[in-house]
């Protein structure tokens, strides 16, 4: 069984383990709008999964090329403020069904559970606390995009999670996510398995084009993959 070779599973947050009805995209658009930049939500969807300062710069370059020299820091600070307010206060903050069950089962089997995310550390901690993952000890390691030199699709967060958990062989790592950059990240790191979930923003075509990956409906399929009992695309 794959449970004999996989020692660490690293999950994305929004769209993979955390329910997201375009909340992050809408906050990103709102942050840009506060500074006079109107960007369609569909375009914001396309930059999900990457570090948010990079996402902001990408959208400005795409829709406002004359803003090349504009500092993104004020926009990013507004994004952080609005996103923290949302995750701290919104009622509809919940995990994607089955996430905690999968975390518990992996840890029961001796497999470490990791989180990596395009969010910064402050937002990451708020989400994990709201969902009770910290209190219940369901996650062994989490890495935020502002804690590494390069966010996705670079492999830095995967390598940092390995370092913090004492995992030395990247082939014993599974990366799970719902965006093309999640798939790229896992492949760039050389993970032994990369899994795309269809519970978030990425379409099957987008995930397949991003690189080699198994595609499943949701996080609930992960334990079945490790037991080699799931049929995947």
From TrEMBL:
What keywords sit in the KW lines?
Hydrolase
Quote the InterPro entries the UniProt record gives. Answer: HAD-like_hydrolase_sf, HAD-like_sf, HAD-SF_hydro_IA, HAD_sf, PGP-like_dom2
GO aspect biological process, one term: DNA repair
GO cellular component terms? cytosol
User: Per the UniProt record, which residue ranges are transmembrane?
Assistant: none
Gene3D superfamilies membership: HAD superfamily/HAD-like, Putative phosphatase, domain 2
Q: Which domain of life is it from?
A: Bacteria
* GO terms for MF: phosphoglycolate phosphatase activity
A Pfam family the protein falls into: Hydrolase
Q: Does the keyword Hydrolase apply?
A: yes
Which PANTHER family does this chain map to? PHOSPHOGLYCOLATE PHOSPHATASE, PHOSPHONOACETALDEHYDE HYDROLASE
Record-given protein name: Phosphonatase-like hydrolase
Species in which this protein is naturally found: Taibaiella chishuiensis
């Amino acid at each position: 069984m794959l449970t004999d070779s996989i020692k660490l599973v690293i999950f994305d947050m929004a769209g993979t383990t955390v329910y997201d009805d375009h909340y992050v995209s809408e906050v990103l658009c709102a942050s840009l709008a506060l500074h006079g930049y109107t960007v369609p939500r569909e375009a914001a969807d396309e930059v999900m999964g990457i570090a948010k300062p990079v996402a902001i710069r990408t959208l400005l370059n795409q829709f406002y090329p004359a803003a090349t020299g504009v500092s993104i820091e004020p926009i990013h600070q507004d994004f952080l403020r609005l996103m923290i307010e949302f995750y701290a206060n919104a009622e509809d903050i919940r995990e994607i069904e089955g996430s905690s069950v999968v975390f518990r089962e992996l840890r029961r089997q001796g497999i470490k559970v990791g989180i990596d995310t395009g969010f910064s550390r402050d937002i990451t901690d708020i989400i994990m606390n709201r969902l009770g993952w910290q209190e219940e000890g369901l996650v062994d390691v989490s890495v935020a995009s502002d804690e590494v030199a390069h966010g996705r699709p670079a492999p830095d967060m995967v390598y940092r999670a390995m370092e913090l958990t004492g995992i030395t062989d990247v082939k014993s790592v599974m990366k799970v996510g719902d965006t093309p950059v999640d798939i790229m990240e896992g492949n760039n790191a050389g993970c032994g398995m990369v899994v795309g979930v269809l519970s978030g923003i990425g379409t099957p075509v987008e995930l397949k084009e991003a690189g080699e990956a198994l595609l499943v409906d949701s996080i609930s399929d992960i334990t079945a993959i490790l037991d080699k009992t799931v049929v995947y695309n």
